[in-house]
Amino acid sequence: MSAKPWRSVLYVPGDKPRAVDKARTLGADAVILDLEDAVAPEHKDAARENVRAALQSRWPCPVLVRVNGLGTPWEHADREMSLLAGVDGLVLPKVEDARTVRELHLRVPLWAMIETPSGVLHAPEIAAVPGVAGLLVGANDLARALRTRPHPERLPLLHALSAVVLAARAAGKVPLDAVFNDVRDPEGFARECAQGRTLGFAGKTVIHPGQVEAANAAFGVTDAGAQEARALLAAWEEARAEGKSVATYRGALVEQMHVDEAREVLDLWEATRQDSTL
């Protein structure tokens, strides 16, 4: 069975009904209806009702809700609404330790936001908690907490980004890269997507409809890439059928890890093609 792709995960403010409706049509692999940072305190209750209404109808992709954080006046109402409305998962901001996650006893997958130094240091334990589906980097808050300066290659954050990927992959969970703030800079967004994929992220959280297609392309598989994976697998199977202990493809040695990677590529390619036909 093909793996679920998480190439693009679109944040949508919960207090913007028109934006929520439009999000259904944008082709994101998942949508996060946001009740936290994107919603002003005076609009929290209205946003919660908007999200409740949006969850009553069918979506073409998984829908997560980013609830307000622990200790805020809205946390319990946000979680109760989301769970009763049938959300596909909850996004919890500023997760800093595994104990907090364990004590929630949720009935849906939890996506933990890693956006503080403590969260980065405890990411392995957080990712290992049963019920945690993935880790999302919150780079804006993390950069502020670390007192870093902006850098086009995110140099001050590279250690933290890699630490989140390492923690998620070690636990078999999904790592999602942080948002790119400047929606007027598509070239910069494309560079950051390429960097995120190089670091090992499965996809990118995005904040603008115009970023969805670029993220899908950056974290997806082209037809040419799928064909290359098929050819490598064919060379592997041919060598095995001939009783050879070693397989080569394009002059390079093929080992089991290359075979596994090729199969993952085809799984992702097939999953994204299936989604595009729905």
Main sheet characteristics: 8 strands, parallel, barrel
Strand fraction = 15-25%
| Gyration radius, in Å | 20 Å
Estimated helix fraction: 40-55%
What number is the mean pLDDT?
Answer: 95
CATH topology descriptor of the largest domain: TIM Barrel
Protein name: (3S)-malyl-CoA thioesterase
Keywords: Magnesium, Metal-binding
Pfam family, one: HpcH_HpaI
Domain HpcH/HpaI aldolase/citrate lyase: 7-209
Ordered list of secondary-structure elements with their pairings:
Elements: E1 8-13, H1 17-23, E2 30-34, H2 44-54, E3 63-66, H3 75-85, E4 89-92, H4 98-102, E5 110-114, H5 117-121, H6 123-127, E6 132-137, H7 139-146, H8 158-170, E7 174-177, H9 186-199, E8 203-206, H10 212-218, H11 223-241, E9 247-249, E10 252-254, H12 256-277
Parallel strand pairs: 1-2, 1-8, 2-3, 3-4, 4-5, 5-6, 6-7, 7-8
Antiparallel strand pairs: 9-10
Could you describe the 3D structure shown?
This is (3S)-malyl-CoA thioesterase. Its cofactor is Mg(2+). Keywords: Magnesium, Metal-binding. The protein is of the alpha/beta class and 278 residues long. The chain has helices at 17-23, 44-54, 75-85, 98-102, 117-121, 123-127, 139-146, 158-170, 186-199, 212-218, 223-241, 256-277; strands at 8-13, 30-34, 63-66, 89-92, 110-114, 132-137, 174-177, 203-206, 247-249, 252-254. The chain folds into two domains: 8-218, Phosphoenolpyruvate-binding domains (TIM Barrel, Alpha-Beta Barrel), CATH 3.20.20; 223-277. The protein has twelve helices and ten strands. Helix 2 packs parallel to helix 3 (75-85) and helix 11 packs across helix 12 (256-277). It is globular and about 70 Å long.
